[in-house]
Design a protein that fits this description.
This protein is of the alpha+beta class and 243 residues long. The protein has a single domain, classed as 2-Layer Sandwich (Peptide Methionine Sulfoxide Reductase, Chain A), CATH 3.30.1060.10. Helix content is 33%, strand content 15%. The protein is built from 8 helices and 8 strands; from the N terminus they run H-E-H-E-H-E-H-E-E-E-H-E-E-H-H-H. The strands form 2 sheets. It has a 6-stranded mixed beta sheet with strand order 7-6-1-3-2-8, with helices on one face. Helix 2 packs across helix 4, helix 2 packs parallel to helix 7 and helix 4 crosses helix 7. The N terminus is likely disordered.
């Protein structure tokens, strides 16, 4: 994230970008990191049964919202994925303040989906498999701070129960090398992020941070969930609003 985008630039991201630019200047090939290849985790044993509702909302946090939004925009059955903030108050839901790590907010994504096409549990399976590493406490990749924590903001008691049961299922199966640190935080409002954060991955596919940290996540989605991957992302811009 850079000052040229009219927003503060976390120090580590700036260093990462400078390193990538220097490598390019030296004529060295820039290859996306292969350190995180995703992980095929089992589907949740407990999941919801679709009712009569035509749409449902999930709110998930897993590091920088650029990548999380980019992943879920490519998931079949998702009708909207909006970057924003959850966990704090409306008065502090601005990027500059959230970046201090003192607001209680986490960079999050509000996912609207058709429960008849994809279930909440399957969204969580993608979340734990490719969208982020749920064993990293208050960080993801180069980003540090509580604003980058792994958190689920359930919009119903059923979602909270499903998430809790799924985390227990994955931990008991020792799917990951360490315990899952994902927090379940019910009763939190979601606030859309600034317009220049929306659809960032799609609009900036050559941006160094995106190339290294986020494009591999989309590639992992396609590889691990071919039945749920769609090539054309559902964009906020196409809907004409970020609300």
């Amino acid at each position: 994230m850079f000052p040229s985008l009219e927003k503060p630039s976390p120090f580590r991201r700036a260093l990462l970008a400078v390193a990538v630019v220097l490598l390019a200047a030296l004529g060295l090939e820039i290859v996306p990191s292969s350190a995180d290849e995703g992980r095929a985790v089992p589907a949740p044993v407990r999941d919801e049964t679709p009712g009569t509702a035509g749409a449902e909302v999930a709110v998930l946090a897993g590091g920088c919202f650029w990548g999380v939004q980019g992943v879920f925009q490519h998931v079949a059955g998702v009708t909207s994925a909006v970057s924003g903030y959850a966990g704090g108050d409306a008065a502090t839901a601005q990027y500059e303040r959230v970046s201090t790590g003192s607001t209680g907010h986490a960079e999050s994504v509000r996912i609207t989906f058709d429960p008849h096409q994809i279930s909440y549990g399957r969204l969580l399976q993608i979340y734990f498999s490719v969208a982020h590493d749920p064993t990293e406490l208050n960080r993801q990749g180069p980003d540090r701070g509580t604003q980058y924590r792994s958190a689920i903001f359930p919009t119903s008691a059923e979602q909270a129960d499903i998430a809790k049961a799924y985390i227990s299922q994955l931990d008991q199966a020792h799917v990951f090398d360490a315990a899952i640190v994902t927090r379940i935080e019910p009763g939190r409002d979601f606030f859309p992020a600034e317009a220049h954060h929306q659809d960032f991955l799609t609009r900036n596919p050559n941006y160094p941070y995106i190339v290294i940290n986020d494009l591999p996540k989309v590639a992992n989605l396609k590889r691990l969930f071919p039945d749920l991957y769609r090539a054309a992302p559902v964009l906020v811009a196409a809907a004409g609003t970020s609300q």
